[in-house]
Amino acid sequence: MPKKEQTVKTMKHSLEATGFYSDASREGTLYAVLVRSPAATGKVKGVTIPELPEGYYLFTANDIPGEKKADINNQSWKIFGYDNVSYSGEPLGILCGPDENKVLELLENVSVNFDIESLESALKKAMKHQKRPVVKLNEPDSDISSFVSEINELPSLDTVLDNRRVEQKTEETVASREIKSGVFAKKGIAQAEKKLFSGKEDFICEETWKLGFLPPLWKETCGSFCWKDGKCLHISAPTRWVTHLMQTVSSTLNIPSENIIVHKTKTSGVFSKGMWRTSILAAQVALASYLTEKPVKLVLTQQEQDSYMAPGVKTQISYKTAVSKEGKINGISAFIDIDVGCFNPFAQEIADRMSIVACNYYRPKNIHIVTKAHTSKNPPTSICLRGIDSQVFFAIENHLQKIADQTNLLPDEIRRINLEKKNTDFPFDFDSENAMETFTKALEISDFNRKYASFNMDALDRIQENSNPFFALPLRGIGVATAFNVSDYYGTTAFPADEKIEITLFPNEHVVIHAMNPSQGVQEIWKKTASEILEIKKDNISIDSEYEISDLPDTPDDAHNTISSINELIKKACIDLQKKRFHQPLPITVKKSSSASFKKNWNKEEFRGTPFGPASYATAVVEVELDTYTYNERIKGIWIVIDCGELFDKSAALRAIRLEIQQQLEMLVRGKAIPCENITINFIQTKNSAGQIGELVRNTLPAAFSSALSLALATQLTKIPCTERQLFELIKQRETKTEKQEEKEQSEQKEKEEAKE
Amino acid sequence: MNVPVTLNGNKTILEAPADETLMSVLRRIGCSSVKCGCGQGMCGSCTVLLNDNPVATCKIPLGIIQNADIVTLEYFERTKEYTMIMKGFELAGIKLCGLCDSGKIFSAYQLLKLSKIPSREEISEQVRSLAPCCTDMNTLINGIILAIEIRDKGVERASRKAERLK
Question: What is the predicted ipTM?
Answer without folding.
Answer: 0.92
